[in-house]
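Journal club side-thread
Mid-discussion, someone asked how the predicted structure for our own chain would compare to the paper's figures. Pasting it here so we can look after the session.
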Amino acid sequence: MTDDIKLLKNMIDESNGIVFFSGAGVSTESGLKDFRSKDGIYNIKLKYDETPEYMLSRTCFYNDTEMFYDFYKKYMNCTHAEPNITHKYLKKLEDKGKLKAIVTQNIDGLHTKAGNKNVYELHGTIYKNHCIKCNKEYSAEFVFNSKNVPICSCGGIIKPDVVLYEEMLPEEAYNNSIKAISNADMLIVAGTSLTVYPASYMVNYFRGKYLVIINLDKTDYDYKADLVINKKLGEVFKGM
């Protein structure tokens, strides 16, 4: 165990009110792509002239629904993914009573699949979908297995309950996340570049003892951290 990981372990041992803030990098070791790395979704060569940001926008969903779903089904389907070392470690940490909440930018549902109970999904989840006409709910399997655009029994278009570009974060998850971070004695930020506002700004609500950032690349918040680890998350948590 390297010195930085030993220090992290000591910080965790000392803390009893931990909040874990997770980004796409937490799920890459489950076989999912992140967004902004060189191999990430935002650097994929598309068959369309549009940007990935447009493909995941509210405008695209309503104006180019077939294009939206062609992209969404190809790149956002996480139903096959299983929790990795990090997800499983967080479940153990919650079972010990140390981890009070997970605040996540991920829509893959892997924290919930791992068994964590107190998960605030800032960007929604692929596992919830609703008809924009009658509000009937549909499963992720229905959406991803449907041909072309998924249609409700009433004839309405089904929309994923994920936060698209041009949409606000869900108020309840946002407020609960701020409260959890504000009350934490330790905040571990992992697998995120901390560039997506307003989620990234939440780090500023932390008033506790230890701020830790674990990410392969540097972030704009590294200067605020008590510990920065630039390693893969599986490497960090495998011996914990």
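Post-session note: Residues 154 and 180 are 40 Å apart (CA to CA).
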